[in-house]
Amino acid sequence: MAEAAEEPQEKKKKPIVKILLMVVGALVMIGIGAGGGLLYAKLTKPPEENPLAIVVERKPEGGDAKAADAKGKDGKDGKDQKPAEPAGKPVPSKEKFVTSYFEFPGNFTTNLKGSRRFVQISIGLATQYDKKVIENVQKHEVAIRAEVLGVLGEQTEGDVVGIENRKRIQGLLKDAINKVLTDRTEFGGIEDVYITGLVMQ
Description:
The protein is an alpha+beta fold and 201 residues long. 49% of the residues lie in helices and 13% in strands. The longest helix has 42 residues, at 2-43.
């Protein structure tokens, strides 16, 4: 009789346990579904509204740098893109100045040293100083012409033939012109002299 009384209590306990397990399981499933839905909603928001997206879009540091390099600027894989060129040394920046040019009107004509032949040349000047230097050249053109003719009159026929000799004469003329300007204005300023035409007859 005692055994028969215990059986109904066990049967009563089993359905209650099953119901409790089903209720708890249902609540867990609802919680998982709701949490997944919220996470999906947060991840699909536009970047300006989604704080998680901002964290994801930050530049990677350390080990993630290689992964970031493998993707292009638009976020696509870099398979179709050209490989990045290695970084070179930066180009040194120099302060740039405007170069002013001046060409003497007319030619310089003089006899060559120890010869019956004469040379006729045209001369241009260059400076990166302000326009005052060119104004000084124009103001003292007579003195500069006399000095240039003196330098040319000291050259022989062999001294005016060939590129190297022309470069040497240009250097001599630059020094002579700067000397005239320094004597008269206390500043030369001519940085280059160019022979723009040369005839020897």
